[in-house]
Amino acid sequence: MFAKVMSVVLSFLGISAFAKDKEGKSFLLPEQEKMLKDKYGDKFLESFKKDLSDFERDGAAAETAVTEEVTAQLQAEQADNARLLARIKALEEAERKFKADIEAKEKEIEKLSKEPGNGAGEVRTEVTGQEQMAHRFKPDMSLAHNQWLDAAFKGAAYSGNTTIDTTELQKEFGKYVSSERLQILKDLMDTTESIRYMSTIVTDKTEVRAMQSAIDSVLQQFVPYWTPKSKSTFTPLTIKNFKCKINVQIKPSDIMEDILGYLYDENLDPKDMPIVRYILYQLIFPKLAEEREQALAVGVYKENSVSQDGGTASAALDCMDGYVTQLKALKTAENDKVTWLLDGTALSTDGETLLSQIDQAVDQVKPLYRNKTMFVHADPDLVIKYSRAYREKYPWLKNQDGEKVKIDFTNFTFAPLEGMRGTGVFFITPKENFKHLMSKDPQRTSIRMETNHYNVDIMAEWWEACGFWLAEAIFAYIPPEEESESQQSSQGGGV
Predict the structure, then answer these.
(1) Could you tell me if residue 331 is inside a domain?
(2) Residue 157: per-residue pLDDT
(3) What are the beta bridge partners of residue 417?
(4) Over the chain, what is the mean pLDDT?
(5) Which of 66, 81, 107 is the last residue of a domain?
(6) Which of 360, 470, 368 is CA-nearest to residue 426?
(7) Beta-carbon count within 10 A of 466 CB
(8) pTM beyond 0.85
(9) How many CB atoms lie within 10 A of CB 323?
(10) 3-state secondary structure of 457
(11) 288-294 LR contacts (CB < 8 Å, sep 24+)
(12) Is residue 326 part of a domain?
């Protein structure tokens, strides 16, 4: 480091060597000290003078530190810096152009929003680069339902018809999804608690399976001949994709007072929270996220045989096979490629014994994975029991990571998932082995509104699933009392 600093200082001062005292030691002339002080400050000057003295303590001249190699390194760094600066300037210019495009697009959307809407508001698929930015929807305040809210919000009584014109609401919904369709679709498929720990597969296949070529070993000893390695022995699992939907009927006139209260609570103006946005983001999406999290964990797919409108809707947990369901199915199928932790052993109610059991479980992880940073996904009740037992045994230890609960002498950290609550299950697997499936074709994901007398019907469809990639990378504990009750999913044995 001193050599590089030395080279920079000599270059800055425009000299090839420092003045020497009678003992041959380098020193800075007053004008040179002033130049360095003005350029880099007092702290740098004093630090450099000390490093200069330390370097020459054994008799070496400071200038010898600046070798050809050091000079070449500095020149290379200067070239890199120049390229980086050019890249930054290019990005700044691109950002300026992008903002200009966005402003132009917003003006266009504002113009279009004043024109009559069209149809049912189904999310369309043609999307330009500029449209990928979520534009703030501006409701048409001339519509009766918006006038009602605006008048009530301002403390006045709206004299018009208080019955909500569902046709107007449908048209407004159409404009809303047209201006913010990408954000709506993103929020429809919002990341749940468990999805944060999964790696995503974007596919439109009804089922996916790990490719053998993706899991080969590559390292080998050199010989001057072509010696391709044989296939690995890993066992790919099949992940089935499921089509899901929402069908929600709402009577807009029944929620107007709720919307008004929400506006007051959140200090919002009616134009900041259109009715169509309230319906999606306050009534539908929060409940959807909660039920998706449960289904992704403990859902058991059951085919719905309804063949006409008005039939019985399936339960939320009937939409797909969750990851806990799949683990239980693999256990029931006696899949010996999965490592079954503490196999056949019930977790103890005694705190100290429980700590010992968890230690035994993590010791069963294969050596290939033991040094990887992984999460122990678990029933939240189990993590609470473990944490309390640990605190009781080691009351003098403080948790430096806040809510994170790390298992001693491992790279494993508990990640409790609400969808697993009450199962008693826990499992360890790399993120790349824990998969979430979502559609890559926007046409397979839609959301729309239709009118039905005084009601509006909200409909959405999408494909979604989760599962595991390789059996050998799963290390799972299933309580023995659950084994006989395991649900057989469409996974079968998964192999």
Answers:
(1) yes
(2) 58
(3) none
(4) 81
(5) 66
(6) 360
(7) 26
(8) no
(9) 30
(10) strand
(11) 288/188, 288/246, 289/190, 289/192, 291/316, 292/192, 292/464, 293/192, 293/193, 293/194, 293/417, 293/418, 293/419, 294/322, 294/419
(12) yes
Residue-number span of the structural domain to which 55 is assigned: 2-66
User: How far is the C-alpha of 95 from the C-alpha of 200, rounded, in Å?
Assistant: 29
Give the tokens for residue 487.
């649900």
Is residue 102 situated within a structural domain?
A: no
User: Nearest 5°: phi and psi at 252?
Assistant: -55, -40
The predicted-structure confidence for 350-384, as pLDDT tens digits, reads as follows: 999 999 999 999 999 999 899 999 999 999 999 99
Which backbone phi and psi does 477 adopt, to 5 degrees?
-115, 125
Domain assignment present for residue 80? The answer is: no
Model confidence pLDDT, tens digit, residues 320-351: 999 999 999 999 999 999 999 999 999 999 99
Domain boundary (14, 41, 66) is at 66
Q: How far apart are alpha carbons 320 and 391 in whole angstroms?
A: 38
Q: What is the pLDDT of residue 231?
A: 63
Quick count: other Cβ atoms within 10 Å of Cβ 293?
Answer: 19
188 versus 386: which is more confidently predicted?
Answer: 386
Q: Where are the alpha helices (DSSP H) in 374-455?
A: 380-393
Q: Looking at the 3D structure of the chain, how many domains does it have?
A: 2
Whole-angstrom Cα distance, residue 73 to residue 283?
A: 61
